Amino acid sequence: MHRAKSIGKRRKKKENFFALCPLLHALCPSRELSMADKMIQVKVFRFDPSVDKEPRYQTYQVHFEKGMSAMTALDYIYQNLDSTLSYYDHAGCDLGICARCTGIINGKPCLFCQIVLEDDVTLEPVSKSKLLKDLVIKKRGKVAY
Q1: Do 104 and 123 touch, CB atoms closer than 8 A?
Q2: Torsion, Cα of 2, 68, 109, 56 (10° steps)
Q3: pLDDT tens-digit map of 66-110
Q4: Whole-angstrom Cα distance, residue 121 to residue 123?
Q5: What pLDDT does residue 89 have?
Q6: Beta carbons within 10 angstroms of residue 43's beta carbon
Q7: CB count in 10 Å sphere of residue 61
């Protein structure tokens, strides 16, 4: 049985450094707010075979941070917007060595933990035929979670 989120560490929300340090913000009033205030749309493939009859896409508004990965966007969605989202994440993610977070990003196969987002994005599972739930698929006889 797979979990709503993967096993392993839970990532803490990345905080805006200037938001945490009002004194620094006061000393640097010329700091641009455009990046911190930018929102991107993350369109995620959703399907729970035990509930849904047909797959669907759900779009989330995510606060954009320069250098954020698709995995960071998924973590933000899970932690702040929709805790029912299922995807693969573990303590070794962001290293790009296990390839368990492989998915389709804007039509191309990629690692969710390695792709840096710049604009709106569509995230899909790498295989819809082996789908267990949302972005979680069965790999090599085991559940990838």
Answers
A1: yes
A2: 60
A3: 999 999 999 999 999 999 999 987 666 667 677 888 899 999 999
A4: 7
A5: 77
A6: 15
A7: 11
Question: In sequence order, what are the beta bridge partners of 121?
Answer: 42
d(CA 102, CA 100): 5
Question: At residue 104, what is the residue type?
Answer: I
How far, in whole angstroms, is CA 30 from its chain's centroid?
31
Residue type present at position 61: Q
As beta bridge partners, residue 39 has 63
**The pLDDT of residue 1:** 38
Q: How confident is the model at residue 44 (pLDDT cuts 50, 70, 90)?
A: very high
From the list 9, 28, 35, 3, the residue with the least C-alpha distance to 92 is 9
Q: What is the pLDDT of residue 35?
A: 52
Topology of domain 34-143, CATH: Ubiquitin-like (UB roll) (3.10.20)
Instruction: Give the model confidence (pLDDT) of 8-18 as tens digits.
Output: 334 444 444 44
Sheet containing strand 131-133, strands side by side: 131-133, 136-139, 142-143
